[in-house]
Description:
- Helices cover 39% and strands 14% of the residues.
- It has helices at 3-10, 42-45, 92-96, 123-137, 149-159, 183-186, 188-196, 200-209, 212-220, 228-238, 241-252, 257-261, 285-292, 308-311, 313-326; strands at residues 55-60, 63-70, 75-79, 101-105, 143-147, 167-171, 270-275, 297-301.
Amino acid sequence: MPTHRISAALCRARETFVQVLPRNVSVPLVVAPRPAYGRPDWAQDGKDWPNRSSSRFVRVGKLRWHVQIMGQGPVVLLLHGTGAATHSWRDILPILAKHFTVVAPDLPGHGFTEQPPGVGMTLPGMAQGISALLKQLGLHPAIVAGHSAGAAIALQMCFEGLIAPQAVVALNGALLPLTFHGAGRSLMAPLAKLMASNALVPMLFAWQAADGNVVARLLTGTGSVINPDGVKFYARLARRSGHAGAALKMMANWDLAFFAARLSKLSVPLMLVVGSNDRSIPPADAIKIQRIIPTARIIRMEGLGHLAHEEQPAETCKIIEDFAVEAGVLIS
Length: 332
């Protein structure tokens, strides 16, 4: 496939930093360094990482994980979405840590966590990997909050009996297969597989992402306006071809068809938090999910996009804390 077509296809991909941006959207100027191919480097890329003092590296089997742990109390597990890392929770962690032990890992292949081979980048594989990490840490989540694809991982862990939380919060959760959104989007997984199989594609994306304005435009295309620090950290990761390649590989191996068929069997209380301006996951998906899981509750965050939790971290924490009280995790 010609590189200009690969580039255009990459910008149509579904998750965080791979979005289509309308031409009339203005974004702030962001100056970024040249692309730094390979995996993100903690000494260089993590030197000013948000909540750095709470970071630790944990080896589980052959995989080295980056995880942030903060606070004391009932355990809340935070799972970010495709293309992100723990920086997505930069303002969430300190707030929740007032009432919880907060544990937030970088997903496999993302941020500073190593990429596993084979099935480790599938939905079941990631669920098993995070379960092994929690076991190594000796932590048992009482509540889980997952953003986008992270919400699917959370529910997959519930279905497999890997965790037994008292509540799950899906923040703009990507819980339905692409076929729910029409034939055009059903081509995304095969397209991602094609791109993931070409080692040059992540390098091409990293080369493009070296222009910080490209990343800023892509983020704005999610329907969210996040602070400059957030843009800076997304740009820093995106210029690393190893991080971009992991995001592509995750999308290429993401199959929600079987997963969606199990939604009706969910027994854990579920809160669906929806940004009304989400341009990545249709807000109407929450209604479809509620029809499958009638007990699921929906909260709309008006005017916010796919990264609503980064736009309004205090409001997001209030939603999580209130739900934790309802579920008996916290005492009001």
